[in-house]
């Protein structure tokens, strides 16, 4: 997690070129997709044709390649039929042209030696959550599981939900990762659906509705502790915005408990070989928060956080020794 939070701090604050220098100095061969693209791309003006939005990093589809005005006829989202496929193919083509030559050696090494990620990162499928961007990670770094609502079905909940359990088992037993991070985010549609489901009339049990039942323990937890959730969950530097944000935070804590219900996870945590972390990413703020050990407070990761200020070690929360926080102990276990 130390490495992960180092990466997040770098992502949050340092100019990309400075980040590249730091990466190079550290002897790490790989740099991120966007960094490479920006680093090697001839300097372009930050604005394109008249009427186009400003060019922003990490939004190549919208601003680097697709600056045509939105078509009049489309699917109701300002997109013409067939445009999506063109965007995807154009992006893949750009990868082959610009990035593949730069990462081929590193990918060849990973292919030859096999993956050895040290961290399992479990987050929502939301398109605004770009895991490699917010962690400044690249190929081989994160074993990633994504689903609607960053949910972790408890073991035995339903054989149809073995996908997440299988990934957890593989990461813990085969890859022997040292940490698992559950990351929620602001504006999560799954949290909105859960909040709306309690008052909605019973409807057809679609796959989405069935899947979201794994978020119901978090919803029940929030309802138990009251609308404001005081005393259990908070952001350190500002009030929790609304119920959607509150449920997203509580859901992270709840899913960490679901993780601990998996035998392989509980065993490795007890052995001191695995640490669990909670994280929340606020999309509009471009700000990551990490769950403080033994509390429900999510602390903002700062650009200069060379060492992490907080992570959540699930399971029994030991009181930190004077001068040595639970965070430090957790990190030393990795
Ligand atoms: Zn989501």
Automatic annotation (TrEMBL):
InterPro entries assigned: Carbonic_anhydrase, Carbonic_anhydrase_sf
- Pfam families noted in UniProt: Pro_CA
The cofactor named in the record is: Zn(2+)
Q: Which Gene3D superfamilies match?
A: Carbonic anhydrase
Kindly state what the record says about how the cofactor is bound.
Binds 1 zinc ion per subunit.
Which UniProt key words apply to this protein? Answer: Lyase, Membrane, Metal-binding, Transmembrane, Transmembrane helix, Zinc
**Primary enzyme class:** lyase
Q: Which reaction does it catalyse?
A: hydrogencarbonate + H(+) = CO2 + H2O
- Give the function comment from the record: Catalyzes the reversible hydration of carbon dioxide to form bicarbonate.
Q: What is this protein called?
A: carbonic anhydrase
């Amino acid at each position: 997690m130390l490495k992960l939070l180092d990466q997040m701090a770098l992502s949050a604050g340092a100019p990309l070129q400075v980040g590249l220098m730091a990466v190079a100095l550290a002897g790490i061969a790989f740099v991120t997709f966007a960094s490479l693209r920006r680093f090697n791309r001839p300097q372009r003006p930050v604005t394109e044709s008249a009427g186009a939005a400003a060019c922003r990093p990490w939004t190549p589809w919208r601003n680097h390649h697709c600056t045509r005005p939105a078509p009049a006829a489309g699917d109701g989202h300002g997109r013409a039929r067939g445009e999506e496929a063109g965007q995807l193919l154009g992006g893949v083509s750009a990868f082959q042209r610009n990035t593949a030559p730069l990462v081929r050696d590193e990918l060849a090494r990973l292919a030859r030696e096999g993956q050895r990620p040290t961290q399992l990162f479990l987050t929502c499928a939301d398109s605004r959550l770009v895991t490699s961007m917010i962690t400044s990670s690249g190929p081989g770094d994160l074993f990633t599981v994504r689903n609607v609502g960053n949910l972790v079905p408890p073991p035995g909940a339903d054989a149809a939900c073995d996908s997440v359990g299988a990934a957890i088992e593989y990461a813990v037993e085969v890859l022997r990762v040292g940490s698992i991070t559950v990351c929620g985010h602001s504006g999560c549609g799954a949290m909105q659906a859960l909040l709306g489901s309690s008052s909605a009339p019973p409807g057809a049990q679609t796959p989405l509705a069935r899947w979201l039942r794994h978020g119901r323990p978090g919803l029940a937890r929030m309802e138990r502790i009251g609308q404001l959730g005081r005393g259990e969950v908070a952001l350190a530097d500002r009030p929790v915005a609304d119920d959607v944000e509150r449920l997203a935070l509580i859901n992270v804590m709840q899913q960490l408990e679901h993780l601990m219900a998996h035998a392989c996870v509980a065993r490795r945590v007890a052995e001191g070989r695995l640490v669990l972390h909670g994280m929340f990413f606020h999309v509009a703020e471009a700000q990551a928060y990490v769950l403080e050990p033994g509390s429900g407070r999510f602390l903002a990761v700062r650009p200069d956080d060379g060492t992490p200020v907080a992570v959540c070690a699930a399971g029994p929360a030991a009181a930190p020794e004077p001068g040595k926080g639970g965070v430090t102990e957790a990190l030393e276990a990795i």
